[in-house]
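ugh ok fine here u go
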Amino acid sequence: MTLATLLIANRGEIACRIARTARDQGIRTVAVYSEADAAAPHVTACDEAHLIGPAPAAESYLVQERILAVAKESGADAIHPGYGFLSENAGFAQAVEDAGLIFVGPPASAISAMGDKAAAKRAMETAGVPLVPGYHAEAQDPDLLRTEADRIGYPVLLKAAAGGGGKGMKPVFTGAEFPEALDSAKREAKAAFGDETMIIEKYLVRPRHIEIQVFADGQGNAVHLFERDCSVQRRHQKVIEEAPAPGMTPEWRAEMGAAAVAAAKAIGYRGAGTVEFIVDEDNSFYFMEMNTRLQVEHPVTEAITGLDLVALQLAVARGEALPFVQEDLTIDGHAFEARLYAEDPEKGFLPQTGTLSVLRLPEGIARVDAGVVEGGAVSVHYDPMIAKIVTHGPDRATALSRLERALAETAVLGVATNVRFLKRLAAHPDFRAGDVHTRFIEQHETALLPRDSGAPGRVIAYAALALLMESEERARQAAKHSGDRTSPWAISDGFRLNRVSKRDLILVDGETERAVTATFHPGLYHLHIGGEVMAATVARAPSTRGDGRLAITLDGQSLTVAVHRSGTGLLVGDPRTGLSYPLSWRDPMAATGSDTAAEGSLTAPMPGKIIRVLVSSGQQVVGGEALLVVEAMKMEHTIRAPEDGVVVMVHYQEGDLVEEGTVLVDFEAEKEDA
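structure:
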């Protein structure tokens, strides 16, 4: 088959990755983009680009007719769907083939077989692949589903039959929770996949999530490319993946690999796919689902096999046979992938949006796949992943050490991210020991998400020194351009007649103001912070990257500290712990005001869309009762009454878009009798 021009029906880092691989093979690439992505990296990564609609995916990236029209207009021979959006849409795969184009992925029949998770369970049962106890039938009456959950025994897991990625997935621990959890899971599934069909599975107490990468060609050959451990998750979405899995034996790997290949062959699979298993503590494994596409975490498999999975996809799409058999494949070392997200771990990992005013990603030590650039925006319309940071080493300890170093070099300003959480996770002793499972974050929440006691005093000192150094540099520039360079007003050495030079700074750490008084002596600052006095010097550290590194001496200790600044925002690294702290600077002479919401009001925890209003103004409610549901990035957050009381006013309707901090409901607590 001819493959001279490839249309990439996706966005972000995967579109950039596919474009690079296709270009290396001499294939012309065509990008599609929404109005929100006009300046996105994947647009410039391709040879040509076409606008396909407004920002919402439902009006652009999910509109099959527009993508097919662009394919025809551009003369494309094939369409690569990437992952997400239309990558597991059997109707789209069939439409591509009906248009006489190559779909870089499995046949529509295979997508259909695995796209309905309930039907997939039944097919795997027939193929002899082990299944976790559950309910996978088509009947969806709520009372029947409740009866089946009771039969299976709590806790159970509700899952969208038509999709994955944690969307439409809800654990249920008691029968009393079931109706509300079912309602929420069905809404999420409907919004994400257009199908609210549910399956129910036994919720294993301490399982691992291990998946097998499979690859098949059109000649009936199929192999597995070993496993990935994706156990460490939040909201049922992966955070750090690794390959191979800790504790895996050759015998266990062979058994899981054989089951995965059997699953692929049972549905006539072609191309790259992933068979996901849930693994119990005794190493018993059960089929969960098959992702009929490339996975976000595919780089760790590439790292340990030396294979380019996108290049293999293109070769198989051209009709070529796999260039190897199972016995040819070996594992080289160990690899990790950390997902850098725009989200706030301290607020339940809520997605964040905004402009990336500073974006510093590691160089040399890690492979970085990013779909955004500094100055770009994280939008409410798409997944909040900023980049994937991938490290490889001859063994697990080396690969993990490199990951920690790579994360230490990562800095983002403009949106809250999970980078500090990732650093804690990578450094946790149980993670370092490979003792991972899907409730790892929940089990170690205290260590991974400690109650924030604020930045240490030394970090406040680093920030103050950065600001003072900038002030000195500006003074020197002013002196350089002064009409009278001998004037005392053009000297920047801190001299003051009859008194020590002093400057007051206010740094804001979360909701806490940290006051700093700096006194200047020739070549030395004395910093007064919360009753503590520190002697310090500061200068710019030698660097070829312009990465904000400062050479600081604090109380006799010399350190290299990364301080990034954008406007009044600062991101300050602590070389002692490897953690970074977002701070802001406030001029103590500036007027202050307050935009704090009125007492009793309930605000939006994240920017998003109101998808359900469950109460009306004047309604009496009880503590914990659901009032509204906000959706962002296809995930739901329910606003609940903090206690018994009255809904005074509901300010928004279903379908309204709101920003983080917007007052949604005025609430009045029930008054106690005098």
